[in-house]
Amino acid sequence: MLIQCGPRVAMRRAVAAVLALLLLTLAAGCGQDSGQGDAGTPADDAGQAGEPTVTVTGAWARPAPKGEMSAAFFVIENQGSEAVRLTGVRTDVAATAEIHETVQEGSTARMQRVDAIDVPAGGRVELAPGGYHVMLMDLQRDLNAGDGIQLVLEFADGQEVTVTAEVRDAPAGGHDGAH
Ligand SMILES: [Cu+2]
């Protein structure tokens, strides 16, 4: 018994020493972490705390009379670390707003509705004549050059971006197909 007692005591002391070291290390670590954590946390969370990660620029729409159709265009930039998906657009100026894509088939341009537009992380997608556009159907009022119309872009992750699109004619020289 005495022979076994010695090692046990030694072991207990060793364990105690290790525990003490561990506690010291943890205490020191905690002190350092709280300092670094305060500085690092806000930046780390910026992209995930409901902060907008999408910027929409250069919004414009074609002039058209009430009851007719128009098309709106803009550039979506995604600064986030995850892809975003434009799933819809709301506006007061049209009874219906749909996301469309103009596709070239031989010499004819045809447009079709698309469910969504994906914008990759760090990427951009341009809605422009001849490609993607927002179709504004059954206009509720005249869209005259110089007007500003409000569009609310809805994304799959729940974020919404409101932009004012300037009503104006297509840029000179831009190709003016089916819109
Ligand atoms: Cu269209």
Characteristics of this structure?
40% strand; alpha+beta; ten-stranded mixed beta sheet; 179 residues; Immunoglobulin-like; binds copper (II) ion
CATH superfamily of the largest domain: PCu(A)C copper chaperone
Question: Helix amount, in percent?
Answer: 10-25%
SSE sequence, one letter per element: HEEEEEEEEEE
Structural class: alpha+beta
Count the beta strands.
Answer: 10
User: Under CATH, the topology of the largest domain is which?
Assistant: Immunoglobulin-like
Largest sheet: 10 strands, mixed
Radius of gyration over all CA atoms, rounded? 30 Å
Tell me, rounded to a whole number, the average pLDDT.
Answer: 80
The end-to-end distance, rounded to whole angstroms, is 95 Å
How many structural domains? 2
Bound molecules: copper (II) ion
Task: Please count the helical segments.
Answer: 1
CATH class label of the largest domain: Mainly Beta
The shape, in one word, is globular
Low-confidence stretches: 21-49
- Share of β-strand residues: 35-45%
Short précis:
By secondary structure, the chain is of the alpha+beta class. It is built from one helix and ten strands. It has two domains: 1-45; 54-167, Immunoglobulin-like (Sandwich).
How would you describe what is shown here?
By secondary structure, the chain is of the alpha+beta class. The chain has 2 domains: 1-45; 54-167, PCu(A)C copper chaperone (Immunoglobulin-like, Sandwich), CATH 2.60.40. Helix content is 25%, strand content 40%. The chain has one helix at 2-45; strands at residues 54-61, 70-78, 84-90, 94-105, 108-113, 117-119, 124-126, 132-139, 148-155, 160-167. Copper (II) ion binds at residues 71, 100, 111, 133, 135.
